[in-house]
């Protein structure tokens, strides 16, 4: 049965960190649903990729999804600026309930807001690692890290390993 993967996304996401995992998820027979501030609005990546938001964060229910994808770029930092903390709360469902969670580059920033990183092993782009460590995670410098349900990678250079780990988690 196809699984439904939520993607938290807003402007200035790293284009390839969305398009490449999305392609891998869909090629493995699963579905991607983009969640953002406003349904049917358009968000634009750092390099011009245009993506339509399928569901607003106000209407999104995490239990409706079988996984979570958090691409990097500036999108995660913008999403963390949500005054109501809705994106961190949404992500917390996945970390708390051991539902597959995939974050690359700056994507793990959103996981900091879950308060569920203590004792978990993660990786991220260099300038996010200290924040993850301060949130209680053990941080390593590897192309992909799988800690139970959480899969993290550092940069677009790691996409092949990241995508393979995503597909493996969704089997």
From TrEMBL:
Keywords: Glutamine amidotransferase
UniProt superkingdom: Bacteria
Record-annotated DJ-1/PfpI domain positions: 3-169
Family: Belongs to the peptidase C56 family.
NCBIfam families, per the entry: PfpI
Protein name: Type 1 glutamine amidotransferase
């Amino acid at each position: 049965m196809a699984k439904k993967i939520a993607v938290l996304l807003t402007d200035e996401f790293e284009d390839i960190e969305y398009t490449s995992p999305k392609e891998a998820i869909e090629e493995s027979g699963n579905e991607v649903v983009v969640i953002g501030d406003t349904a049917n609005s358009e968000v634009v990546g750092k390099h011009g990729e245009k993506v339509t938001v399928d569901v607003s964060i106000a209407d999104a229910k995490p239990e409706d999804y079988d996984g979570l994808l958090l691409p990097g770029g500036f999108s995660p930092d913008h999403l963390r600026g949500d005054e109501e903390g809705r994106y961190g709360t949404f992500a917390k469902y996945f970390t708390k309930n051991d539902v597959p969670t995939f974050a690359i580059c700056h994507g793990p920033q959103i996981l900091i807001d879950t308060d569920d990183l203590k004792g978990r092993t993660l990786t991220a782009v260099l300038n996010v690692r200290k924040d993850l460590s301060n949130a209680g995670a053990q941080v390593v410098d590897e192309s992909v890290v799988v800690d139970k349900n959480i899969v993290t990678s550092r940069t677009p250079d790691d996409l092949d390993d990241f995508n393979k780990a995503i597909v493996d988690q969704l089997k």
